[in-house]
Design goal:
This protein is of the alpha/beta class and 184 residues long. The chain is 30% helix and 21% strand. The protein is built from five helices and eight strands; from the N terminus they run H-E-H-E-E-E-H-E-H-E-E-H-E. The protein is elongated and about 60 Å long.
Amino acid sequence: GVIIADQTGIGKGRQAAAVIRHSLLNDCIPVFFTKSPNLFSDMYRDMTAIGMPEIAPFILNTDSKSKIKDADGNVIFAPLSASDQLETLTTKRVIPTDSPEALKWLKENGRKVPDLDKQPTLTLYTPINFLPSDYNMIFTTYSQVQSAHPYKRAWIEGLVTASNSSSARKQKEVVFILDESHLA
């Protein structure tokens, strides 16, 4: 790990962009974390300034502030909607509420068993453990993996677990780039 603690304007963004580029050149998945989504555009501009040819970020945030804009204010990348993101990053299964698997899930998540007549099935969303093929990096804020969206955190954990796997189905390694890390 490396901590870059230079003052504002010295080039920390360009260095972070270089780490993202290095990750891609070494067939890794860079995950760029920052404090607020408006900083995604700054990182995009730093990446283009160092000549990155292929930029295809999966934006984990879903609000309108998460759009990545160029220096002229044109939207270059926009996040998926919350529902499209849930569909893209998870697999959905519907199981009987009284099944052993559902009861285990309810217990692990601190939930009471619902009235079976009112809720005969339970829908479980299981995060995938890979980056969808249309993307080559991830942009996110710290808030997305804290508590508001548990499937997002589980998805990133799954990427890391799959990259550390000793199985034949090992996935790409994951590299974290933490901007404004004192706020993580």
